């Protein structure tokens, strides 16, 4: 792999926002480390960006549900003599079940992937970035981070964590040459709704909010990280929606969000 180009490590890169972020960073002259569970999809993407942009894309399969996976991933990267200049924590998933009825394994797995793995990878690469005086971390949060979400309680809580952590660490590293950005997409055309089983929720089924493409979200996120923006909410209407809870009583926000996320299954 060329040492002349910066290196971006992207998790959840096999599809959706992660794959399109890989395309954005490749177009911007970054070599890539593409991480996800599906090797075939990663290999196809690696070949695509290599052909289109002349970059090198390394494929590493990993299941971040495994608590040992983040450090094993970092050890693999270091064993190849590679240094991560950009970390894109995109891997994550949701669940549209009420807390009491949700699968314990899925609930704890969500916390493992959305919170623990993300934190572990940040903790692994950030000291080196600070020591070198340059680097970028892009954490994919969500507009779900801005309010509690009945029927998606744990998912919203994990994204609130990602947003809060990103903002705090961005302040800690201010002036070091390292930036931390939280990208907050709203509903996006990916396989998220199928995995989370939320297609029947009013928010999604009744077209109450615009659904962006993953390519649109990736362009916004890449641009925000490149300029060092701390929080980037994708889309004007999503920005308005993210502001609304600041001016609305929490009791009202909870009730409204609960109605939007209700599916009739609970």
From TrEMBL:
<protein>
    <submittedName>
        <fullName>Short-chain dehydrogenase</fullName>
    </submittedName>
</protein>
<keyword id="KW-0560">Oxidoreductase</keyword>
<comment type="similarity">
    <text>Belongs to the short-chain dehydrogenases/reductases (SDR) family.</text>
</comment>
<dbReference type="InterPro" id="IPR020904">
    <property type="entry name" value="Sc_DH/Rdtase_CS"/>
</dbReference>
<dbReference type="Pfam" id="PF00106">
    <property type="entry name" value="adh_short"/>
</dbReference>
<dbReference type="InterPro" id="IPR036291">
    <property type="entry name" value="NAD(P)-bd_dom_sf"/>
</dbReference>
<dbReference type="InterPro" id="IPR002347">
    <property type="entry name" value="SDR_fam"/>
</dbReference>
<dbReference type="GO" id="GO:0016020">
    <property type="term" value="C:membrane"/>
</dbReference>
<dbReference type="GO" id="GO:0016491">
    <property type="term" value="F:oxidoreductase activity"/>
</dbReference>
């Amino acid at each position: 792999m060329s040492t002349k180009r910066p290196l971006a490590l992207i998790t959840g890169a096999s599809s959706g926002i992660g794959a399109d972020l890989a395309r954005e960073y490749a177009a911007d002259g970054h070599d890539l480390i593409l991480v996800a569970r599906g090797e075939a999809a990663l290999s196809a993407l690696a070949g695509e960006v290599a052909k289109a942009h002349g970059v090198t894309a390394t494929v590493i399969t990993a299941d971040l549900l495994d608590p040992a996976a983040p450090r094993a991933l970092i050890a693999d990267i270091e064993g190849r003599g590679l240094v991560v200049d950009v970390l894109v924590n995109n891997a994550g998933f949701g669940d549209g079940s009420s807390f009491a009825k949700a699968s314990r394994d899925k609930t704890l797995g969500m916390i493992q992937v959305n919170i623990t793995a993300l934190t572990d990878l940040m903790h692994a690469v950030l000291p080196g970035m600070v020591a070198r005086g340059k680097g970028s971390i892009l954490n994919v949060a969500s507009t779900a981070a801005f309010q509690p979400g009945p029927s998606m309680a744990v998912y919203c809580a994990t994204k609130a964590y990602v947003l809060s952590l990103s903002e705090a660490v961005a302040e800690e590293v201010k002036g070091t040459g390292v930036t931390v950005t939280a990208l907050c997409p709203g509903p996006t055309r990916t396989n998220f709704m199928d995995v989370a089983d939320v297609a029947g929720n009013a928010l999604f089924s009744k077209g109450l909010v615009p659904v962006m493409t993953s390519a649109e979200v990736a362009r916004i996120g890449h641009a925000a990280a490149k300029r060092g923006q701390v929080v980037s909410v994708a889309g004007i209407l999503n920005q308005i929606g993210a502001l609304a809870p600041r001016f609305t009583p929490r009791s009202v926000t909870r009730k409204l969000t609960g109605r939007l996320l209700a599916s009739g299954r609970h």
